[in-house]
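debug: dumping io for the single-chain case to check the tokenizer round-trip. Nothing else runs in this session.
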Amino acid sequence: MTQNPDTVNSAQATNLSGQLLVAMPGMVSGGFENTVIYLCEHSENGALGLVINRPTDLTVGDLLERLNLSLSLDIGPVSGMPVCFGGPVQTDRGFVLHTAAGAYSSSIGLGDLALTTSRDVLQDVAQGKGPDDVLITLGYAGWGAGQLEEEMAANAWLNVQASHAILFKLPHEARYNAALAQLGIDPLMLSGGAGHA
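debug: decoded output
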């Protein structure tokens, strides 16, 4: 018996964990225009991701000082890095995406990366002993069961493989174009609506 493709359940859908979601112009609203999101988890229960290209005015050094973590001289340029707006959910909570290093108390492995929400990773960062690469956000982006799949079907997002360069090395303002470039797309070629002949 052949299965109707319309009846395939979301558990059989493509898992986009570890990929970047790139907002399509005019298709995504609610402050997500021109965003790039690293998708930490994606399952039949929903999805969780971090916006990686929306820096705030708060620097990592400012955040560490607010948390009463004394800064080591070894922290270097990390101190001046901006903290990103990670998404509209739990904006009072910090999320640290980093290269896998250390055994932190509230961490989940994401392949060669990890997502940590506990203070101990920030203590290591403040002392210059943290992971080599870190991206710190306040808040996250979340989708309920089937919601991301619906948005993908409506062409709201493109997905592309994540790279350490885009996540950690490029300036925030270059990340959107760099993610599109991995697909061979020039952002000027994209439009927000469908045309009519």
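debug: round-trip ok. The chain has one domain: 19-186.
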